[in-house]
Design goal:
Layout: E1 3-8, H1 14-23, E2 28-33, E3 36-41, E4 55-63, H2 71-81, E5 99-105, H3 113-128, E6 146-153, E7 156-162, H4 184-193, E8 204-207, H5 214-222, E9 227-232, H6 235-248, E10 257-261, E11 274-279, H7 298-307, E12 308-318, E13 332-339, E14 348-354
Parallel strand pairs: 5-6, 8-9, 8-11, 9-10, 11-12
Antiparallel strand pairs: 1-3, 1-4, 2-3, 4-7, 6-7, 12-14, 13-14
Length: 357
């Protein structure tokens, strides 16, 4: 029996999430919306293994004709009232701290997200015999609450329940963090754009601004035979990266990861020895540029041009799109550019190929 699932995505990465679903044969994609990919799948099909998705949900009701007026709340409540426990959740309240609902919608409406959450949440909690925890007034649901989500785009709404016990973007390995650490599904998207999901990829993958190690850990998930080298000029970042890597491969020593202190403008890496680069240069927001990058990224591009093999790829998260007036770094050509929405900004995942000459 097929189930409708909804994969939540960073805005702009929806096609990458859809491609991962198809490539891993998790199901058949039936629709793409803002920050969502809808697909038909079979229960227990490995949904929690999606790496480019923020979260994955199981649709319980699709509601058409949801307008902008407050009558929409009654329509959503009726749909929620018709959702009965299906045996995939708890049969009683044992071990579950209640029910929570998160809602979002596109465009202007005559109701708030809290109105939607409460209209749906009270009905779901009644059916499941759980206490509903509202976010209205700044309330925060307790840990362990059954999580539901309502999204509305146009006149179509979906009411869905989280497939796992936590959002997919909360990776278990992320035991250490630092300011400016990269969102794991975005790092996974960068790794896929670098072609690391090719069969039996081998070679060195470099991150010259490794932070807490997220890009290389996501790269390892796709390319377990690759060598992974991460450098940062901040000792706290290198320590966090090493700790997170140990959470992935606790019994492996030294394993595929190599971490070290270095300025991204002067890397201890041999010429032409790297096949792929994944990099999230400092934006100057949470992490100010320092060292040789303090006055711009030219030293970084010079080093990447030096260490990459001819034809190698560098996938960078940048504020300026090199393919749209941002200035392509010398010695590189733009293969692809994907604009995303992240923390209120709109950076571009840029795929750069090192020219042979």
């Amino acid at each position: 029996m097929l189930t409708l699932a909804v994969a939540r995505a960073v805005r702009g990465t929806e096609p990458l999430v859809a491609a991962e679903i198809r490539r891993t044969r998790l199901g058949a994609v039936v629709g793409v919306r803002r920050r969502e990919v809808w697909f038909e799948t079979r229960p227990g099909a490995g949904l929690l293994g999606l790496r480019t998705a923020d979260d994955v949900l199981l649709a319980a009701a699709v509601v058409d004709g949801v307008g902008h007026g407050r009558s929409a709340l009654a329509r959503l409540a009726r749909a929620a009232r018709g959702i009965a426990p299906d045996g995939s959740g708890p049969s009683d309240s044992s071990g579950v701290s209640g029910m929570e609902v998160s809602a979002s919608f596109a465009g202007r409406r005559n109701y708030t997200r809290y109105d939607i959450e409460d209209a749906v949440g009270h009905e779901l909690a009644r059916s499941w015999r759980l206490r509903y925890h509202s976010r209205r007034g700044g309330g925060r649901p307790p840990s362990g609450a059954m999580a539901w989500r309502v999204t509305i785009e146009g006149d179509l709404a979906v009411i869905a329940r989280r497939a796992g016990d936590r959002p997919l973007h909360r990776r278990p390995y992320k035991t250490s963090s630092i300011p400016g650490t990269l969102h794991p599904p975005l790092a996974a998207a960068m790794a896929r754009l670098a072609g690391l999901d090719a069969a039996d990829f081998r070679g060195v993958v470099l991150d010259p601004c490794c932070g807490a190690g997220t890009t290389l850990i996501e790269a390892h998930a796709l390319a377990p035979h690759a060598g992974l080298a991460g450098f940062d000029r901040d000792p706290a970042a290198v320590a966090a990266a090493a700790a997170n890597a140990r959470a992935v491969l606790p019994a492996t020593a030294p394993g595929p990861f190599r971490w070290g202190l270095a300025d991204a403008g002067r890397l201890p890496v041999a010429d032409g020895s790297v096949r792929r680069v994944l990099v999230n240069p400092p934006w100057g927001r949470q992490v100010p540029p320092r060292g040789l990058l303090g006055h711009g990224l030219d030293p970084l591009w010079r080093e990447l041009r030096r260490v990459l093999e001819p034809g190698g790829l560098a996938v960078a998260l940048l504020h300026d799109d090199p393919g749209a007036g941002g200035g392509t770094p010398a010695g590189f050509g733009v293969e692809e550019a994907v604009q995303v929405s992240l923390s209120g900004l709109h950076p571009v995942i840029t795929v750069l190929r090192r020219r042979s000459r």
